[in-house]
Write a structure and sequence with these properties.
two-stranded parallel sheet; binds nicotinamide-adenine-dinucleotide; 7-stranded parallel β-sheet; 11 helices
Length: 340
């Protein structure tokens, strides 16, 4: 794969997509185009990347649900060979009461992308999937063969997308991978990138930041009686830059791989369980403060403990996470202008 390969990054203005574009540009992949309708982002991230890299990014402000728009897009960008598909709605808890919107956006968006990219010579497709499709694991760490048990429309939409992608890649003979992310946090603070937190975000890190900034009085912690060592949920937090690196390895692998395998799936986690209380404690010790907490009723279907068996991606893509919890927290604090 040469650096002139044209890569479409959907959701490029979002948290992980923007970090991915930055990395691609830093590696000299300059022929990048993005599609983002800014439903969960602003132009800020793309502007920051442009300022930092002194390179221009062309974003098409397009909703992937808009079939006509997606069709027109591909008819004027016939030289795209690789798609990295981040664009999706991503909140498992929000999806419970917005099921239709989640299926329309996540499944409908993928179907449009696949349908209208049939007019181009697509070689590779990388899809953002999630560990949420395992549900509450029956053994940890979870490997890719763990039974699938999505507990909400978001996770189910990703499982449906994985299956559609697998079948269409085979039918059309392009190569595709689904990367099942665990819990990305952290930022590239050098470029000023950070996760966009909408007011409705119930993720732990945005909530911690709000409390530290004094926007909210106490941090809601969902349950302290989960069957884990300290009673709080255990997750596999991974630095977003490590996660992005996995996409680069996947892209390189798909280009080298001459086997007949059209589709594969990889977990992308550090393989280390960290409790929510330990994460909070890391913020507290780096800032030398105490974060007021409010233990609230645990959410329906809250997973107690999950972390990845990443041996498949370690072995096949030669990928390994490098950054530890302290770096993830420090970069989050810097990106949010809490430390400098
Ligand atoms: P994000 O919300 O920050 O980025 C997604 C981007 O896609 C946003 O900029 C949004 O405006 C855009 N978008 C959404 N629907 C669109 C549509 N129909 N048309 C055009 N643009 C659209 O999310 P993220 O954290 O960067 O996540 C990226 C991907 O990774 C998502 O597919 C998500 O499901 C998956 N994922 C994220 C996490 C996580 O914790 N962040 C974990 C597992 C999987």
């Amino acid at each position: 794969m040469n650096n002139n390969t044209k890569i479409l990054v959907t959701g490029g203005a979002g948290y992980i997509g923007s970090h991915c574009i930055l990395k691609l540009l830093e590696l000299g992949y300059n022929n990048i185009i993005t599609i983002d309708n800014f439903s969960n982002s602003t132009k800020d991230s793309l502007q920051k990347i442009e300022e930092y890299t002194k390179k221009e990014i062309h974003n098409e402000n397009l909703d992937l649900k808009d079939s006509k728009g997606v069709k027109e897009f591909f008819s004027s960008h016939t030289d795209i060979t690789t798609i990295i598909h981040f664009a999706a709605l991503k909140d498992p808890f929000e999806s419970i009461n917005n099921a239709q919107a989640y299926y329309e956006n996540n499944v409908g968006g993928l179907i449009n992308l696949l349908k209208y990219s049939s007019s181009i010579q697509l070689s590779n497709f990388i899809f953002s999937s999630t560990c949420a499709l395992y549900g509450e694991p029956n053994k940890i760490p979870v490997d890719e063969n763990h039974p699938i048990n999505p507990q909400n429309p978001y996770a189910n939409s990703k499982w449906i997308c994985e299956n559609i992608l697998k079948d269409v890649a085979k039918e059309r003979n392009f190569k595709a991978v689904s990367l099942r992310y665990f819990n990305p946090i952290g930022s590239n603070s050098k470029a000023g990138l950070k996760e966009y937190y909408s007011n409705r975000s119930k993720n732990i890190v945005p909530q911690i930041i709000r409390v530290i900034k004094g926007e909210v009085n106490a941090l809601p912690v969902y349950g302290n009686d989960l069957p884990t060592k300290d009673g709080s949920g255990v997750r596999d937090f991974i630095h977003v830059e490590d996660l992005v690196e996995a996409h680069l390895r996947a892209m390189e692998f798909l280009n080298q791989e001459h086997s007949s395998l059209n589709y594969d799936v990889y977990n992308v986690g550090r393989g280390m369980g960290i409790s929510v209380l330990k994460l909070i404690n890391e913020f507290e010790s780096q800032l030398d403060i105490q974060i007021p907490m409010n233990i609230v009723r645990k959410r329906k279907n809250e997973v107690a403990e999950i972390y990845a068996d990443s041996s498949k991606i370690n072995a096949k893509l030669n990928w390994r996470a490098n950054k530890n919890l302290a770096q993830m927290v420090e970069d989050t604090l810097m990106a949010n202008d809490i430390i400098y």
